[in-house]
Amino acid sequence: MTAARREPTMRGMTGPAAPNLAPPNVGRLRIVLAEAARWYRERLLTDRPPLAVATLTDRGLVDLAAVTPAGRRWQLGYAPAGRGSAALVQHPRGAGFTDRELFDAGVAVPGRYAG
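Above: the chain sequence. Below: its structure as tokens.
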């Protein structure tokens, strides 16, 4: 018996490999990226990580809400280190995006281990 080929995995991402025959849906990928940007912005404004806030304040960015307006071409955000970054993957999954869409958008990177 041969083992089924498995899709590359990232923490909690597993599944049988399937050929990616269709090109990615660009509209959905843009929504994934917008969700990721919103998530990073919320981490900065809600968690207010001391080192990130101090760094931005030292550079004259005192009012974080004013310098990170939603809907702008660019925004400031914060990416938590370690296992906190796994929440970035869980957030769009909860909104119905697939692992393949997360990979295609560059929000998640396939890894070797699930868990």
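The longest helix spans residues 26-47.
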